[in-house]
Amino acid sequence: MTEGVRRVPSRLNTDDSGFEAEFRALLGAKREQADDVDAAVRHIIARVREEGDAALIDLTRQFDGLDLTPEVLRVGQDEIDAAHAATPEETLAALTTAHDRISSHHARQMPKDDRYVDAIGVELGSRWTAVDSVGLYVPGGQASYPSSVLMNAVPAKVAGVERIAMTVPAMRGVLNPLVLTAAKICGVSEIYRLGGAQAVAAFAYGTETIAPVAKIVGPGNAFVAAAKRQVFGTVGIDMIAGPSEILVIADGRNDPDWIAADLLSQAEHDSAAQSILITDDAGFADAVEAAVERQLKTLSRGATAAASWRDHGAIILVGSLDEAPALSDRIAPEHLELAVDDPEALFARLRHAGAVFLGRHTPEVIGDYVGGSNHVLPTARSARFSSGLSVLDFVKRTSILKLGPDQLRELGPAAIELARVEGLDAHGRSVAIRLNL
Amino acid sequence: MTEGVRRVPSRLNTDDSGFEAEFRALLGAKREQADDVDAAVRHIIARVREEGDAALIDLTRQFDGLDLTPEVLRVGQDEIDAAHAATPEETLAALTTAHDRISSHHARQMPKDDRYVDAIGVELGSRWTAVDSVGLYVPGGQASYPSSVLMNAVPAKVAGVERIAMTVPAMRGVLNPLVLTAAKICGVSEIYRLGGAQAVAAFAYGTETIAPVAKIVGPGNAFVAAAKRQVFGTVGIDMIAGPSEILVIADGRNDPDWIAADLLSQAEHDSAAQSILITDDAGFADAVEAAVERQLKTLSRGATAAASWRDHGAIILVGSLDEAPALSDRIAPEHLELAVDDPEALFARLRHAGAVFLGRHTPEVIGDYVGGSNHVLPTARSARFSSGLSVLDFVKRTSILKLGPDQLRELGPAAIELARVEGLDAHGRSVAIRLNL
């Protein structure tokens, strides 16, 4: 990289002496503006807790330009049915394909109860049960995606959650009918036309019209994210998702246009999204860059994609793809495409990625929609310590212990000793008293 | 309950007309003082990020009354070995029993990879890998428990975490040698004498001496809890644990002294702890209450236990134990003892509990130490949506997709259609371009 000239997108080369510093800068770059909305959100939540529906109605008028009454907070079944009925056949078929594939994949994730007796006769176990009720937040406007409804509602359904409520803001009254259609396909019929921190507060604490839920999931803007953080503890929440990312590891035998399209499929989501290419072929890197420039001109969200590519995109040139797994693990990408002849070998050598797409014929977009796996995945390097959304997010485990007098006699003394050294008399006594000690 | 006279502990009766209101008040009562330490913690974290070891040394002098140098931030192996060597045989045996039982139980929790080919030839799967590095916070002073080291370190070890670092504050230089011994038994040798928000910040961001970790676990005071919340996202964290709780469901055929000891074993932890008894036998309730009063006088932590029992304890009288499961689910207790003849029948009828202890010979304390299950469990009704600590907290899942040209041809059109209706051109193109569409 020539001193003082920032190439667009960033071009790094593991052979350069400055590589480590540049790579660290890439990893450390903040892509999200941390709007300080905490105080505003705290105020909104307090109002909803105090005033209930009245606060929801007032805040929805103020933020969404929509006049509601308690009677129409909830979307009517007729409105849901009408949206479904008006959905073109081809779209309905695509949504149904996606729904069915997501369902059957997620069914395999259901954890199994475990109950056993150990060598001394102690019964141990784990029992999994579904969360009773879940609130699903669906963003409004441009990011009101039916696929997001499927990805959040299906795992909850598969887990056996009895009540799945949904909320989606209706800016000036407009709801995306495909969001309602997707909800109907998932069997979700409790839908509110509410958004922002007020919707999160309603799910967490309940109002006259809305019963509280046990867990809130789904993406949202800075207000929604801050509200989820604030109500965490009162209810469960899923991860706080950041802007989308893709890392493509590709050799020079790919069609540059394919890889360019894959990079742009993340970039078009958000100007804060990040697309990175790692390749061992400088000529291929140039060809991809050129292809990106060409394709950018034809995208309806070209300005967004261009900003993302310019500000956050990167091409990392490696001497050999052998170097790629270690770099990839430091990036810990949300999405990882391995566009090489032997993707399995590469995959075996890396550890941190939300989702991996193996081979040249698995564009990440298949995972966004119809692959069957979940598209809610850990961003911002959090794949180092967390996983994508799954059935596990909608169940919880009760651990089980059962001793008889014999087992208590055998294990009791060790427990009494540990209670003693920890200075917890009543702990020791609750065992000793049963053993007449 | 007589108007105006608060009985100690609260006595509720499901037959009373005021029961529902009283029960709601019990559920809604705040037991924790929410110290507003956020600003102080934010300042501490910023200092550690900027000044590294120097900040750790300065803050440790200030808060822990201990003068450190970078060379002695870390506890020496000789110090760990000496603590282990000085541990009495009986204590060592008890710790080892606990360690081995926790290990073998947690080994069963390791999730299995899943890889399969579906009907149309798409390969799907989930691969689990361990988190690379974990920081374990161990409180100092009275709450510096060796059992807590075991309960946090063993699941990490079982999961295959390569680097487990530990930190424990050494107030005026004093470390609990049993904490070091427990660490040695777990194979943990990277131990720092640091506490508070500064220790959490060091784990999250690293300093000259301490490499950052991917996830931070373990209990702590309000500063530690606030610091964990603030660094969440940069690193993973476990749950934020609140004060301990127990619910005992007992018929009249129990020894009141046994049940009293069980109730007190939670109460002695913390004046904010909560012990609740549900029984169908008013005479038994009286007998338990009397036994609690008697036993309180003999506990070294009697004042703490008495405050907990007075302020947060409750006895709920039900007409029949049939009513108990529904009440228990609303409480969603951390620990649930079923001291009845047929505990399995009761257990089958309830859903929300962190851990259940079946039968009259399974005091909860067995689970604290040597049962094999984990004692880090969801508090404050969060068993409605979360689980105790397990191997799952130290692994993460990568989802896998692999299509060939045929599968892409079959699934591609549905993905293209969904991208179209969501207005995401590049998404559609990344599929279409591979199909020459």
TrEMBL record, chains A, B:
Xref: Gene3D superfamilies: 1.20.5.1300, Nitrogenase molybdenum iron protein domain
Cofactor annotation remark: Binds 1 zinc ion per subunit.
CDD domains: Histidinol_dh
Cofactor(s), names only, from the UniProt record: Zn(2+)
Positions annotated as active site in the UniProt record: E334, H335
GO cellular component annotations of the record: cytosol
Protein name: Histidinol dehydrogenase
Species the sequence originates in: Aurantimonas manganoxydans (strain ATCC BAA-1229 / DSM 21871 / SI85-9A1)
